[in-house]
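Field: COMPLEX_INPUT
Field: COMPONENT_COUNT = two
Field: RESIDUE_TOTAL = 230
Field: MODE = joint
Values follow.
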Amino acid sequence: MLVLVTEDELRPEEAIAAVASPRAGAVNLFLGVVRDHNKERAVRYLVYDAYPEMAEKVMREIVTEACARFALLDCAVLHRTGPLQIGETSLLIAVSSGHRAESFEGGHWLVNEIKKRVPVWKKEVWANGEEWVEGPESLGLQQAPASMR
Amino acid sequence: MTVTVRLFASVADAAGCRRLDLPLTEGETVAQVRARLLERYPQLGRFVPVLLYALDEEYVADTAVVPDGATLALIPPVSGG
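Field: COMPLEX_OUTPUT
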């Protein structure tokens, strides 16, 4: 398992190498990248903040859960923080499994859970202002009992 | 006894700081520490309806008792990815 919150550039080959296994028939790689707009508004760049120690701990919990639920062989989850330019990778996930179906399903589930539970925040910077993204999609966790988070 | 409070993102911007130590009384809950924090930073009041709390990197309810030396994090709605 590789889990990391870092200000450095994320390198896909590092994640792929981390999940390599002779038993793997599939490796699924996901890159979350910075796009130049959100809800019709032009975005200049993003700034990510994190609670790094807790983010890595929650990521480890999610990875452990994913490995059990989807019979995955290994997972790598890396999140970048600080200012990120358009096209740069903010989230990098690699998943290895015996067969392709589990790697797709497990990878998809991992992205969703990471966005829901990991203490990381993004700020959009526009030409004429900026705002932390704290939309309704992040509020699911607020409604869950503490034991379910 | 003390508790270290950590603030992030919009909450840190509003407070103008990311970390502070508060004195702690035996048996105080997260909600009680939050009330004292709001005396010092009343501008954080608007975040309370959407905040989650973590004690030593574990999500807790605001009824949890804060141990001496703990780190209490105020967690606004997350938006990573």
